[in-house]
Amino acid sequence: MYSNILHNVVLITLCAFLFECVLATEKDKCSGVSSCATCLTKTMCTWCVTKSRCTKQECGNDNVIYPKSVVALLSGPDFCPRVVEGQKELVFKSGQRQKITIKITQIYLYMAFTPWKCKINVNGKEHVIIATLIVDNVYCESFEFKNESDEPYVTGTVSVLWDYEYNKAFDGSLPFRVCRCDLDDSCVACTK
Question: Where does the record locate the signal sequence feature (predicted)?
Answer without folding.
Answer: 1-24
